[in-house]
Amino acid sequence: MKSLNRSIILNKIRTDGPISRADIAKATTLTPPTVSSIVKELIDSGLIAESSQGESSGGRKPTNLIINGRNSYVIGLDVGPKHVNAILTDLNGEILEENQILINPATSNDELLNLLQQTIKRLIKPYKGQEDKIIGIGVGMHGVVDVKKGLSLFAPILQLRNIPIKEYLEKEFGILVKVENDARALALGESWFGNGDGVENSVTINVGSGIGAGIVINGKLFHGENDIGGEIGHMSIDINGPECSCGNNGCLQTLAAGPALAEKARREISKGKKSILKEMVKDNLEEIDGKLIYEAALKGDQLSIDIFKEAGEYLGIGLTNLIHTINPQKIIIGGGVSKAGDLLLDSVKETVKKRGITESAKQTEIVLSHLGDNGTAIGAVTLILVELFSHNSLG
Ligand SMILES: [Zn+2]
């Protein structure tokens, strides 16, 4: 009960601070003595602090309380198929340190775990002597994740299975570790710090080397029975389409993820299609990637523009399926490919407008993520913040 009250108070200060003890009591229906005693504990532990004086309704001015963001740190890892992006933030999600490291495409389970450990060690080096202020490590892992065990069940592009991320990192660092699928981590980050703030039912889709979605229902992440809820990258779009890393054909990600766009550009140029991409990579077509296609599109390259348009159409079909399945209030698109912005988004929206079965389905709000390259890592940090502010198992 006490720890529940503690997280209720912490969360009130997080969402409504600066706020006075009296206003917390009013808003939470906790008694003023309960609020005072828990607030004292929270101040002693360094999680909150007293700030400016609030407005007085006559008599002594009350003292306001704020989250003491700078006194505790959280680590967030975005583990993609190609690189690890690591950040260290304060409790307000402000990034204080960051680094990025490449993953060897032929990595093993042990090598990957070792890489994560090394990345974290490098990240926290400037905080030597303050390790006790780091309250947890959140990991946004691509592929299918067993959230309870913190186990990566299947990382399809690296072709790895059963990587014990939580167990390994908790043993190495002795702090709480939470592991979640990367798209779900991004969705959680969006619902705390981004475009999903205040939206009860939303879907965040991560379009990068693969495609995944994080589904938020009634403000909470939806996992499904066995943690594959949201694997929309493997939604079948074209039964005769290209083969996918999962073994099926024509999955959404074989048509609209970054590697699919690059492949399409190479194919068309090999067939003789004119494009400035050819000069941009000095005829070395293997060097074409999503970023270059975007640059070429900005310069008016028709092939590149058409590639984003087509990818947007496929994504729009996937999203229409999703709208007809769970009918979210809002869809947020993040990940590397989303950097194409309106080049992609206009075509996504147009497709949903064409295919939605009702007027409200057609009008589903679709926006780009604003969290940027660190979105998934911020989401990984949020995995720990949720523990702290929502049911507070950290003590
Ligand atoms: Zn697939």
How does the SSE layout of this entry go?
Blueprint: H1 2-16, E1 19-20, H2 21-28, H3 32-44, E2 48-53, E3 63-67, E4 73-79, E5 83-90, E6 95-102, H4 109-124, E7 134-141, E8 144-146, E9 151-155, E10 160-163, H5 165-173, E11 176-181, H6 182-193, E12 202-207, E13 211-217, E14 220-222, H7 253-256, H8 258-270, H9 277-280, H10 290-298, H11 302-326, E15 330-334, H12 342-355, H13 359-362, E16 365-368, H14 375-391
Parallel strand pairs: 4-7, 7-11, 12-15, 15-16
Antiparallel strand pairs: 1-3, 2-3, 4-5, 5-6, 8-9, 9-10, 12-13, 13-14
Helix pairs in contact: 1-3, 1-14, 2-3, 6-14, 8-11, 10-11, 11-12
Give an account of the 3D structure.
The protein is an alpha/beta fold and 395 residues long. It is 41% helix and 22% strand. It has three domains: 2-67, Orthogonal Bundle (Arc Repressor Mutant, subunit A); 71-191 and 375-393, ATPase, nucleotide binding domain (Nucleotidyltransferase, domain 5, 2-Layer Sandwich), CATH 3.30.420; 197-370, 2-Layer Sandwich (Nucleotidyltransferase, domain 5), CATH 3.30.420.40. Strand 5 (83-90) and strand 6 (95-102) form a beta hairpin. The mean pLDDT is 91. It binds zinc ion. Zinc ion (ZN) binds at residues 234, 244, 246, 248, 251.
Summarize the structure.
Keywords: Carbohydrate metabolism, Xylose metabolism. The chain is an alpha/beta fold and 395 residues long.
Q: Which tags fit this structure?
A:
single chain, 395 residues, alpha/beta, Arc Repressor Mutant, subunit A, Nucleotidyltransferase, domain 5, 3 domains, five-stranded mixed β-sheet, globular, binds zinc ion
